[in-house]
């Protein structure tokens, strides 16, 4: 094994051990079995998949192929045949097996290997190959360059802080002729293992340079499907966020519309309150002031018939001003005394004689009474055109 592949192999071994030590393999196996049981038989055959290990053994002068875990022989042919015939015999034996799932292991007889047990510290799990090379001289009569070996962790009890392992060693003097015959037949194997009954031990003594390079179209398809699923998931999340943003924007628009309606209603309510206040103000002012009609009626009743008014005004303070002509203007003050609508009637300015009519022109001012004080009283009778 080259020094460049050692770190990668170590990382892969560490990940593989962590995976096997976790409960996930059992859960995945149970979950996959439950899902497979729900599928029709044809679909189970179509999607079953998984690695299918087949065992190749050299018995006498023949190659024998069995399925891992089964004793039935699938094919047997002579190793003296040409390479093409041997490859055809192997393909016929493995007909119907998906080439991507197919794994072939060349199994050695148990008497061809040494399997010393090791008790190693837990820190050695990341360097099993180096530990195997270090223990080779102590556990076997061979040197490292004389053997093919592998170190496999065992599920056995071990002292605290240590774990049980097994060093599987086969002399190269025995393996190299077998590997040369295998290469001459044109057959490729994925592992060089040890037979354990109808199954394989689980080690791999095959040198890294002899490991086959397999194409994995299904893996590429699975990766493409996984990437597509991730893209679809991201797109669905983006669509979900877009829908949320659209709904939020719609809610904001509705809130703005309702806010505008609420402001309009508030404006109308304020306008109504203002109008009601103005109407109340006018009503209150009307209640607290004497009307101009009542003033004109009272003046009409109290002024003599020989007098007339030219102008009448009432300001906001309740002051009444009226201007007119009368033959005897001085007597008008007495005529306006006792008026229920005005009080304090007096002349303002001087009384002058109009040259055209010959009557006295006057200008008088008075103050309106409050409505509570303005009680109707009969106007005094006038005698000879004067009060």
Automatic annotation (TrEMBL):
<keyword id="KW-0812">Transmembrane</keyword>
<dbReference type="InterPro" id="IPR007813">
    <property type="entry name" value="PilN"/>
</dbReference>
<dbReference type="InterPro" id="IPR043129">
    <property type="entry name" value="ATPase_NBD"/>
</dbReference>
<feature type="transmembrane region" description="Helical">
    <location>
        <begin position="221"/>
        <end position="241"/>
    </location>
</feature>
<dbReference type="Pfam" id="PF05137">
    <property type="entry name" value="PilN"/>
</dbReference>
<dbReference type="InterPro" id="IPR052534">
    <property type="entry name" value="Extracell_DNA_Util/SecSys_Comp"/>
</dbReference>
<protein>
    <submittedName>
        <fullName>Fimbrial assembly protein</fullName>
    </submittedName>
</protein>
<keyword id="KW-1133">Transmembrane helix</keyword>
<keyword id="KW-0472">Membrane</keyword>
